[in-house]
Amino acid sequence: MARKVISVRTVVATGIGAAIFFVLMRFVAIPSGVPNTNLNLAAAIITIFGAIFGPIAGVLIGFIGHTLTDLTWGGVWWSWVIADALYGLLIGLFWKLFKIEDGEFGIKQAIIFNVIQILSNAVVWIGIAPTLDILIYAEPADKVFLQGVVAASLNAGVVLILGTILAAGYSRTQVKAGSLKAE
Question: 47: burial class by Cβ within 10 Å (0-12, 13-18, 19+)?
Fold first, then answer.
């Protein structure tokens, strides 16, 4: 029998996550004052879905959600689509450390979660996105690195607050392993 590469649960989570990501990024974006850089609650969605459902869901939510958003604005900005997909992948790679599904997302996991999301935001938005902007679109370095620093900071802040609240809240709905006892 062939092994499943992706579960039905992951496919459903990806569809729901990409839809929520799209709606938040498209309709709930708050301008930052830096051109083409917004405060987006969508950053918390890609993070929480990647942290719960793993790297496949994370990468697909980032890729699909950001691509759909850009298509509705008139053109896809591939450097940032790739960056969101890589961010979802990075968060998803560490999903087992967060123990959200185990109902054990406590202070230790919140710290691990936030250290990883802050580092992932920095790598993706300060390193990868601006570099791709320069290579693909010949954008000026000072402009794209400023956008990257602002995007990384805003996303990290959104995830620190909203993402941590969502992770803790969802984790509390999960049954902890070994919590059921036979009578």
Answer: buried
Architecture of the domain delimited by 8-172: Orthogonal Bundle (1.10)
pTM assigned to the model: 0.92
Q: How many CB atoms lie within 10 A of CB 40?
A: 23
H/E stretch holding 38 reads strand 38-39
- Which residues are paired to 39 by β-bridges? 30
Domain segments of the chain as ranges: 8-172
pLDDT of 118-129, one tens digit each? 999 999 999 999
Q: CA-CA distance, 59 to 92, in Å (whole number)?
A: 8
Q: Please say whether the dihedral angle defined by the alpha carbons of residues 68, 70, 74 and 79, taken in this order, is positive or negative.
A: negative
